[in-house]
Amino acid sequence: MPLGHLIYGVFSIVFIDLLLAGDNALVIALAVRSLAPRERRIGTICGAAGAVVLRVGLTFVAAQLLNIQFLKLAGGLFVLWIAVKVLVDTTDPPDSVPVPKRLAQAIWYVVFADLTMSTDNIIAIAAASNGHIELIIFGLCLSIPFVVLSANLLASLMDRYPFTIYLGAGILGRVGGEMILTDRFVDRLLHPSGTVKYIVEGVLALALIVGGKIYCDRRRCRPA
Predict the structure, then answer these.
(1) Which residue of 7, 69, 76, 114 has the lowest C-beta tally within 10 Å?
(2) Which domain holds residue 177?
(3) Has residue 222 been placed in a domain?
(4) Would residue 224 count as lying in a domain?
(5) Which tens digits make up the pLDDT trace of 62-77?
(6) How many structural domains does the chain have?
Protein backbone atom coordinates (compact mmCIF):
# COMPACT_ATOMS: atom_id res chain seq x y z
CA MET A 1 0.00 0.00 0.00
CA PRO A 2 1.41 3.46 -0.89
CA LEU A 3 2.56 5.47 2.15
CA GLY A 4 0.14 8.30 1.39
CA HIS A 5 -2.84 5.95 1.32
CA LEU A 6 -1.65 4.30 4.52
CA ILE A 7 -1.38 7.63 6.38
CA TYR A 8 -4.77 8.75 5.07
CA GLY A 9 -6.35 5.45 6.12
CA VAL A 10 -4.84 5.64 9.62
CA PHE A 11 -6.05 9.21 10.19
CA SER A 12 -9.49 8.37 8.82
CA ILE A 13 -9.84 5.41 11.17
CA VAL A 14 -8.64 7.41 14.20
CA PHE A 15 -11.23 10.10 13.43
CA ILE A 16 -13.99 7.49 12.98
CA ASP A 17 -13.12 5.85 16.31
CA LEU A 18 -13.17 9.19 18.13
CA LEU A 19 -16.43 10.22 16.49
CA LEU A 20 -18.35 6.99 17.13
CA ALA A 21 -17.01 5.97 20.55
CA GLY A 22 -19.38 8.15 22.59
CA ASP A 23 -22.54 6.04 22.68
CA ASN A 24 -20.59 2.84 23.24
CA ALA A 25 -18.63 4.42 26.10
CA LEU A 26 -21.85 5.60 27.74
CA VAL A 27 -23.57 2.20 27.68
CA ILE A 28 -20.40 0.57 29.01
CA ALA A 29 -20.08 3.17 31.80
CA LEU A 30 -23.65 2.50 32.90
CA ALA A 31 -23.20 -1.27 32.67
CA VAL A 32 -20.13 -1.33 34.96
CA ARG A 33 -21.02 1.56 37.26
CA SER A 34 -22.25 -0.66 40.11
CA LEU A 35 -18.89 -2.44 40.32
CA ALA A 36 -15.99 -1.52 42.58
CA PRO A 37 -13.21 0.47 40.84
CA ARG A 38 -10.97 -2.59 40.26
CA GLU A 39 -13.78 -4.79 38.93
CA ARG A 40 -15.03 -1.83 36.89
CA ARG A 41 -11.71 -1.62 35.04
CA ILE A 42 -11.62 -5.40 34.52
CA GLY A 43 -15.21 -5.47 33.24
CA THR A 44 -14.66 -2.55 30.89
CA ILE A 45 -11.43 -3.90 29.40
CA CYS A 46 -12.62 -7.52 29.08
CA GLY A 47 -15.98 -6.51 27.65
CA ALA A 48 -14.53 -4.05 25.14
CA ALA A 49 -11.80 -6.51 24.10
CA GLY A 50 -14.34 -9.30 23.62
CA ALA A 51 -16.54 -7.06 21.51
CA VAL A 52 -13.58 -6.01 19.36
CA VAL A 53 -12.60 -9.64 18.70
CA LEU A 54 -16.12 -10.26 17.42
CA ARG A 55 -16.04 -7.03 15.44
CA VAL A 56 -12.94 -8.15 13.54
CA GLY A 57 -14.82 -11.12 12.17
CA LEU A 58 -17.96 -9.12 11.45
CA THR A 59 -16.06 -6.43 9.58
CA PHE A 60 -15.45 -8.84 6.71
CA VAL A 61 -19.20 -9.15 6.22
CA ALA A 62 -19.89 -5.52 7.14
CA ALA A 63 -21.94 -4.81 4.05
CA GLN A 64 -24.44 -7.48 5.10
CA LEU A 65 -24.85 -6.28 8.70
CA LEU A 66 -27.40 -3.63 7.87
CA ASN A 67 -29.55 -6.24 6.10
CA ILE A 68 -29.85 -8.54 9.11
CA GLN A 69 -33.42 -8.25 10.31
CA PHE A 70 -34.01 -7.83 14.07
CA LEU A 71 -30.31 -7.16 14.83
CA LYS A 72 -30.76 -3.47 15.57
CA LEU A 73 -34.21 -4.14 17.03
CA ALA A 74 -32.73 -6.59 19.54
CA GLY A 75 -29.83 -4.25 20.27
CA GLY A 76 -32.15 -1.29 20.81
CA LEU A 77 -34.38 -3.23 23.21
CA PHE A 78 -31.29 -4.44 25.07
CA VAL A 79 -29.96 -0.89 25.40
CA LEU A 80 -33.33 0.24 26.82
CA TRP A 81 -33.25 -2.69 29.24
CA ILE A 82 -29.75 -1.71 30.41
CA ALA A 83 -30.94 1.86 31.02
CA VAL A 84 -33.87 0.64 33.13
CA LYS A 85 -31.74 -1.88 35.05
CA VAL A 86 -29.12 0.77 35.85
CA LEU A 87 -31.82 3.04 37.29
CA VAL A 88 -33.12 0.15 39.42
CA ASP A 89 -29.61 -0.75 40.58
CA THR A 90 -28.97 2.79 41.85
CA THR A 91 -31.21 2.02 44.84
CA ASP A 92 -29.67 -1.39 45.63
CA PRO A 93 -26.96 -1.77 48.30
CA PRO A 94 -23.48 -2.25 46.74
CA ASP A 95 -23.13 -5.74 48.27
CA SER A 96 -26.58 -7.01 47.31
CA VAL A 97 -25.14 -9.14 44.47
CA PRO A 98 -21.92 -11.24 44.72
CA VAL A 99 -18.95 -9.56 43.00
CA PRO A 100 -18.13 -12.43 40.55
CA LYS A 101 -21.72 -12.56 39.35
CA ARG A 102 -21.91 -8.79 38.93
CA LEU A 103 -18.57 -8.74 37.07
CA ALA A 104 -19.55 -11.55 34.66
CA GLN A 105 -22.93 -9.91 34.11
CA ALA A 106 -21.32 -6.54 33.36
CA ILE A 107 -18.89 -8.10 30.85
CA TRP A 108 -21.79 -9.81 29.06
CA TYR A 109 -23.71 -6.52 28.94
CA VAL A 110 -20.68 -4.72 27.51
CA VAL A 111 -19.98 -7.33 24.82
CA PHE A 112 -23.56 -7.61 23.58
CA ALA A 113 -24.47 -3.93 23.77
CA ASP A 114 -21.19 -2.76 22.22
CA LEU A 115 -21.48 -5.28 19.41
CA THR A 116 -25.07 -4.44 18.47
CA MET A 117 -24.38 -0.70 18.70
CA SER A 118 -21.25 -0.87 16.55
CA THR A 119 -22.62 -1.60 13.08
CA ASP A 120 -21.93 2.01 12.06
CA ASN A 121 -18.40 1.80 13.43
CA ILE A 122 -17.72 -1.53 11.73
CA ILE A 123 -19.00 -0.38 8.35
CA ALA A 124 -17.16 2.97 8.53
CA ILE A 125 -13.84 1.29 9.37
CA ALA A 126 -14.34 -1.33 6.65
CA ALA A 127 -14.92 1.46 4.12
CA ALA A 128 -11.96 3.57 5.31
CA SER A 129 -9.58 0.60 5.24
CA ASN A 130 -10.37 -0.26 1.62
CA GLY A 131 -10.25 -3.94 2.54
CA HIS A 132 -6.72 -3.89 4.01
CA ILE A 133 -6.74 -6.32 6.92
CA GLU A 134 -3.95 -4.53 8.80
CA LEU A 135 -5.93 -1.26 8.83
CA ILE A 136 -9.13 -3.04 9.87
CA ILE A 137 -7.42 -4.69 12.86
CA PHE A 138 -5.65 -1.41 13.71
CA GLY A 139 -8.92 0.52 13.70
CA LEU A 140 -10.84 -1.99 15.79
CA CYS A 141 -8.02 -2.42 18.33
CA LEU A 142 -7.63 1.36 18.56
CA SER A 143 -11.26 1.63 19.60
CA ILE A 144 -10.48 -0.27 22.84
CA PRO A 145 -8.45 2.49 24.60
CA PHE A 146 -10.83 5.19 23.35
CA VAL A 147 -13.90 3.41 24.67
CA VAL A 148 -12.27 2.16 27.90
CA LEU A 149 -10.90 5.59 28.83
CA SER A 150 -14.17 7.33 28.00
CA ALA A 151 -16.25 4.72 29.87
CA ASN A 152 -14.12 4.97 33.02
CA LEU A 153 -14.28 8.78 32.95
CA LEU A 154 -18.07 8.66 32.55
CA ALA A 155 -18.46 6.10 35.35
CA SER A 156 -16.36 8.29 37.67
CA LEU A 157 -18.46 11.30 36.72
CA MET A 158 -21.63 9.39 37.60
CA ASP A 159 -20.15 8.47 41.00
CA ARG A 160 -19.48 12.14 41.71
CA TYR A 161 -22.64 13.61 40.19
CA PRO A 162 -25.53 11.10 40.53
CA PHE A 163 -27.89 13.18 38.38
CA THR A 164 -25.76 12.24 35.36
CA ILE A 165 -27.04 8.66 35.73
CA TYR A 166 -30.51 9.85 34.73
CA LEU A 167 -29.05 11.92 31.90
CA GLY A 168 -27.13 8.87 30.68
CA ALA A 169 -30.24 6.69 30.87
CA GLY A 170 -32.11 9.31 28.83
CA ILE A 171 -29.39 9.29 26.17
CA LEU A 172 -29.58 5.50 26.03
CA GLY A 173 -33.34 5.87 25.57
CA ARG A 174 -32.68 7.99 22.48
CA VAL A 175 -30.03 5.57 21.20
CA GLY A 176 -32.28 2.55 21.78
CA GLY A 177 -35.19 4.24 20.00
CA GLU A 178 -32.98 5.12 17.04
CA MET A 179 -31.71 1.54 16.76
CA ILE A 180 -35.22 0.07 16.93
CA LEU A 181 -36.69 2.42 14.32
CA THR A 182 -33.80 1.92 11.89
CA ASP A 183 -33.98 -1.86 12.05
CA ARG A 184 -34.70 -3.28 8.60
CA PHE A 185 -37.82 -5.14 9.76
CA VAL A 186 -39.29 -2.16 11.62
CA ASP A 187 -38.50 0.22 8.77
CA ARG A 188 -40.19 -2.04 6.24
CA LEU A 189 -43.19 -2.60 8.50
CA LEU A 190 -43.85 0.93 9.76
CA HIS A 191 -41.92 3.24 7.39
CA PRO A 192 -41.36 5.79 10.18
CA SER A 193 -40.70 9.32 8.98
CA GLY A 194 -37.90 11.47 10.32
CA THR A 195 -40.38 13.37 12.51
CA VAL A 196 -41.77 10.17 14.01
CA LYS A 197 -38.24 8.97 14.80
CA TYR A 198 -37.41 12.22 16.62
CA ILE A 199 -40.66 12.07 18.60
CA VAL A 200 -40.18 8.43 19.64
CA GLU A 201 -36.55 9.02 20.61
CA GLY A 202 -37.52 12.10 22.64
CA VAL A 203 -40.39 10.31 24.40
CA LEU A 204 -38.16 7.36 25.34
CA ALA A 205 -35.41 9.65 26.62
CA LEU A 206 -37.87 11.70 28.69
CA ALA A 207 -39.66 8.60 30.01
CA LEU A 208 -36.40 7.10 31.27
CA ILE A 209 -35.24 10.34 32.91
CA VAL A 210 -38.54 11.28 34.58
CA GLY A 211 -39.79 7.73 35.23
CA GLY A 212 -36.41 6.62 36.57
CA LYS A 213 -36.17 9.61 38.93
CA ILE A 214 -39.70 9.04 40.28
CA TYR A 215 -39.13 5.29 40.72
CA CYS A 216 -35.79 5.75 42.48
CA ASP A 217 -37.13 8.47 44.79
CA ARG A 218 -40.10 6.31 45.80
CA ARG A 219 -37.95 3.23 46.35
CA ARG A 220 -35.52 5.13 48.57
CA CYS A 221 -38.42 6.45 50.65
CA ARG A 222 -39.76 2.95 51.42
CA PRO A 223 -39.11 1.73 54.97
CA ALA A 224 -36.49 -0.97 55.28
Answers:
(1) 7
(2) 3-217
(3) no
(4) no
(5) 656 656 778 778 878 8
(6) 1
